[in-house]
Design a protein that fits this description.
This protein has 267 residues and is mainly beta. 10% of the residues lie in helices and 36% in strands.
Length: 267
């Protein structure tokens, strides 16, 4: 039997900005450490993503010991300290309202200039809890998520992407789908059948297929939107009127994950 293993481990510190590939990551109750703990909001304190502004893909982030180092084409680098303390706001992401901390005026000016829209960067502190949809939660008092759309983990297999690319004229990269966990060694869409897995020491429940939106049509290296792969996915991955690709997961314990960890299928 082929060994299934974790082949990629990705975080996206600012929601809808570029991701960072890691070799090892700590699992906290909100998900992977630093994953989507920052988010851009508009004048109404509502979240902003590549759905509205595709060029957000061009915002690159590096994790330094005590700050985020943020760059974008035509902009001077921006430094955002991890130890954010300032004005608190109630912000909205997909109908959820939660308490966040404003990252400050320099960040507001920088992002507003680059995106040509009035916006500001906010941070989700540890003590601000955004609970997972109770329809999918395993532990209703504990399962929480950061500023990710709905769940702390998204998993996709390399084989599923290869299957999709075999149907496309121009192949797309895995970063179109913004997964946290990429696995290798299984058949295409094998992840659709999993219910409980263990990666390293972390137990994960596979709770819901991931419905895909127009962010998947944004070329992440250029910020330009097209028609694919959503158009092709709609021909064979449609479920109840939604295009599904990848699986959302909840974790049952804390720990760490590393590229190369074995993926055990428990159910």
């Amino acid at each position: 039997m082929t060994r299934i293993a974790l082949s990629e481990l990705n975080i996206y510190p600012i929601k809808s900005a570029a991701g960072i590939s890691l070799q090892t990551a700590e699992v906290e109750w909100k998900g992977l450490r630093a994953d989507r703990r920052w988010m851009l909001v508009n004048e109404h304190n509502r979240f902003i993503t590549q759905r509205q502004i595709p060029k957000m893909a061009l915002i690159a982030i590096a994790l330094e010991p005590d700050h985020l180092f943020i760059t974008a084409p035509g902009m001077e680098p921006l430094v955002v300290p991890y130890s954010v303390s300032g004005i608190e706001l109630e912000v909205e992401v997909w109908g959820d309202r939660c308490r966040a901390i404003v990252a400050g005026e320099p960040a507001k000016a920088w992002f507003s200039q680059f995106l040509d829209i009035s916006c500001q960067l906010v941070y989700l502190p540890d003590d601000s809890v955004r609970l997972v949809d109770p329809n999918y939660a395993i532990d209703h008092s504990r399962d929480q998520v950061s500023f990710a759309d709905a769940f702390p983990f998204l998993l996709i297999s390399e084989a599923s992407l290869q299957d999709l690319n075999s149907r496309l004229t121009t192949p797309v990269a895995m970063n179109r789908f913004r997964p946290n966990l990429v696995v290798k060694g299984c058949d295409p869409f094998a992840e659709d059948q999993w219910r409980k897995i263990r990666i390293g020491s972390v137990l994960l429940h596979v709770v819901k297929p991931c419905s895909r939106c127009i962010v998947t049509t944004v070329e992440q290296t250029t910020g330009v939107r097209g028609q694919e792969p959503l158009q092709t996915l709609a021909t064979y991955r449609l479920q109840q009127g939604q295009v599904m690709f990848g699986q959302n997961l909840l974790h049952a314990n804390l720990g760490s994950l590393s590229v190369g960890d074995e993926v055990e299928i428990l159910d």
